[in-house]
Amino acid sequence: QAMADDTEDVELDFTADEEERARRNAVIRHPLASFFHLFFRVVAIVVYLLCDWISKNFASCFVLIITLLSFDFWSVKNVTGRLLVGLRWWNQIDEDGKSLWVFEAKKNSQGRSIGTEAEARIFWLGLIVCPLIWTFFFFTSLFSLKIKWLALVVASISLQVANLYGYLRCKAGGQEGHFNILHLLELLCALCMPLFDAADCTHMLPMDWSSY
């Protein structure tokens, strides 16, 4: 009887561990960074839509929107990317005077990206959706022949897409030779899917691009 007690199977509760992991991933650890990650770019879009009601002066609207997007560019590039998803990119000059682009992805002890799933969704949602909205504004301005607004929209798209491209390079590991349009599209699809589905699609990212 004693030996039977010693060898008795122990039932492990994996459900509780999964629930605890899901609860931790749903937590927003950096609420201030999450707020400002969306604040400047959303306000810039709202100002653009309401510009005719806010001010009849195009120059004032232009300066206000570019200022908001400049703050957004700086905060996303230098603060929110590092805190929410552990990614950074920057430019530096080497000893030979050449310009180098550096793309960094910080991992935790398990080799996974830092931050929670909730923060990652906020980060990528703002980073992907807002440039699409400005692209829509580009076509509406073009087809409605609002030529003076095109310069503003193009500048806005440039600021937004610069950060998006930089962080996609970080996500791809900063690889140079094999980073092409196919890799870019796959990364975008892999990042967009969790925004609408809780399923983790990060297993889609590793691929052999040597054949392209």
TrEMBL record:
Q: Which domain of life is it from?
A: Eukaryota
- Where is it found, in Gene Ontology cellular component terms? Golgi membrane
The membrane spanning regions, by residue number, are 32-51, 57-74, 122-143, 149-168, 180-199
Assign the protein's first listed, main location to one coarse class: membrane
Statement: the UniProt record of this protein carries the keyword Plastid: no
Membrane topology according to the record:
Multi-pass membrane protein
Q: Which UniProt keywords apply?
A: Membrane, Transmembrane, Transmembrane helix
The protein's location, in the record's own words, is: Membrane
Task: Write out the GO biological process terms.
Answer: protein secretion; vesicle-mediated transport
Enumerate the Pfam families for this protein: DUF846 (PF05832)
What does the similarity note say?
Belongs to the TVP23 family.
Q: What is this protein called?
A: Golgi apparatus membrane protein TVP23 homolog
Q: Which species is this UniProt entry from?
A: Myripristis murdjan (pinecone soldierfish)
